[in-house]
Every structure is written in C-alpha cells, then in structure tokens.
Amino acid sequence: MSNFLCKTLLQVRHLTTISPYPKLRCVQSLHFNYSTVSSDSHSFTVSYLINSCSLSPESASSASKLVSFISPEKPDLVISFFKNHGFSIAHISFIIGKYPRILLSNPNGALLPRLEFLYTRGASSSEVTKIISKAPKILMRSVDEHLVPAFDLLKGYLGSNERTIASIKRFPSIIADIRQKHLSGSVRMLLDAGVPEAHVMYFLFYQPRMFTMALDRFREILEDVKKMGFDPSKSSFIQAVHAIRGMSKSTWVRKLGIYKRWGLSEEEILAAFRSHPWCMTLSEEKIMLAMDFFVKKLGWETAAIVRSPVLLSFSLKKRTIPRASVLLFLFQKGLTTKKTMLVKPYMYTETQFLQKFVRPHLKEAPQLSKLYRINVDGGINRL
After folding, report:
1. Which GO terms of type biological process are on file (predicted)?
2. Which positions ≥6 away from 33 have C-beta within 8 Å?
3. pLDDT tens-digit profile of 354-370?
4. Gyration radius (Cα) of the chain, Å
5. Over 60: is that where the pLDDT of 39 sits?
6. Which pLDDT tens digit goes with each residue over 320-354?
7. What is the number of structural domains in the chain?
8. Residue 174 in contact with residue 154, Cβ under 8 Å?
9. Is 74 a member of any domain?
10. 12-29 b/e with 16+ CB inside 10 Å = b?
C-alpha cells in the first residue's frame, strides 16, 4: 500500500512540474502577446504624433493615453482632410494636441458637417480655418443638438449671420461653450442693472466671452462694480464688468499692490479704474514698466497718471517712448514748453502727433524725423 502511495505522489509531482495549471499557462501566454501588441501600438502612436502631427515628445506621450492605433491609415485620412481644407501643420498640431481622439474620426462623417455648418452661415474658408483652429472643441459638438441652437441664440441678439460670424471670430469658443441659460441670464442682469441695451449688444458683439460666465459669479461681479461707484448708464460700467471677469481675486489684489508701490492709495487706484477700467487688465509687468517710465524716467507725478490712466495702456515701444524722445528733444532745443509735454501728445493719433510736433520743426531740426523713426523702430533699447 505504501509503495502504491509513493508512486502516485511521484506521478503527481511530475505532472505539476511539467504543467501545474495548463489553462493558466495559456492565459499567461496570451497576456504576454497582448502586452507586446499594446506596447507596439503605444510606441507607434507616440511616433506618429511626433512625426505626422508635430507634437512635442511630452505632448505626444500625454496624447497617447487618450488615443492609440497601430497603422497610419485612419489618422492619415484625418490629417489629409485638414490639409485639404486649408489647415496648416501648426493648426493641426494644436487641434490634435487638444483632442487627439479626432485622429480616429471619420472625416466626411464627423468633421465635414461641422465645417459645412459654418460655411452655410456665411463664414469663408479662411474664416472657418481660423475659427476651428482656435476652438477645436467645435469639432466635438453635435451640429443639430448644440451648434445650430447656439448660433441661432447669438443671432437672435446680434441680428444677422454676418454679425454673428464676426462675433464668433473674436472669440471662437463662444459657439462651443455658450449656453442659453448663461447668455440670456447675463443679458437680463445687465438690463435690470440699468445698462442701456445698446451697450449690452455692443459688448456681446465685441466681447462675447463675457457672456459664458456662470450666473452666480456674474451677479457677484455686478454687485462689486456697483459698489465701486460705476454708473450703469455709461460704457465704463460694462467695461469694468469685463475687466474683473478676466481675473481672479488674487490677481486683482496683486495689481492693487503694484500700483500702491508707486505711492497710490486704494481710492486713487479705484478712481483710475473708474476712469479707464482697462488699466487693471494690463499685465503686472506692463504696469511696472509703464509706471517706471513715466515716474522715474520722465519725472511725472503719480497724480498725473491717475488722472489719465489710459496712458498706461499705450505701447511703450511703439508710442510712448518715441513720442517722449521727440518732446524731450524739442524742449531741450527750446522749441516747446514743459507744459505741452504732458498727457495730450500721447493721446494724439499718429497723424496728429506728426503734424503738431515733427513736421513743423523739420527745417530747423531735420534730425527730428530720423530721431522719431529710430525710436519707433528701436523702442526702449534706443532711449
């Protein structure tokens, strides 16, 4: 009996050594093959995204987590579709970087209808290219369920296809992101606050992005603007709404801090904001450079800048510095007074400035034309 048991145990041990779990070994083999195929697919996808879509290795690696393919046939059709419709490699790279799954789309079935929708509303081929390349999210939206209702909603306020397309060109994402609740609610709040309808429609046309905001946040901003003393009947009210909408509360506090560094009180800063709301939309670097130029280089009092904060919005390189160079030259030559050097010359159009401060003095100071041209071309480095 003991001999029989020993033989049986030896046979069992032999079998388990050869194949303890035959079916499991088969599964392990399949898993190995799947892993190999998956690895090859990932490698091909990353390579394709880099070489055919001009994505950076980092972007390609990130995009490959959302899309995968083992041959170029399908993505090649998508790339060709975009090229045939006027999209540049840069456009395609941006679109695929944002929505890599588009590479698996049926160009004629999924992409073409979105483009045709814009064509039929009056957008030219080049306009469609710009709109889509700036807001590729449009390609992810249903034509019937989203794009048509969104366009018609905007058109209901703006009045025509032409004006609606023009508004979309200014902020292409509006057609992808707009919701009836947000747009209608924002318009109603502004009208109820006493903003003239003409001002509301003007901003919907030129700054449609403002009307995509969540209603609770929009209501909060309106209340803040009222507390700052803005008159709803003036265009500066809605400009202030737009300015505050574009920044976080922490950014607003930082910009207040930058102005305060130049000795301005919070009330003086708010007075400047009421006069020219765009002065708070400038970058922190731009505010510092402009204040430094007027206060340190030109020796202005900060009060003069507060009274005319629009000065801060002008381009230092193309406008402020060249004009300051001309005015300083004229003052040194006794051809103008110190009083005429403040504020107004910077507010004139280019033609007006040339007529008042350059052309009248060319006979006695021919170098003035060259000086102005040099500074226009050279900007801050030439001062």
Report:
1. DNA-templated transcription termination
2. none
3. 999 999 998 888 888 88
4. 32
5. no
6. 999 999 999 999 888 888 777 889 999 999 999 99
7. 1
8. yes
9. no
10. eeeeeeeeeeeeeeeeee
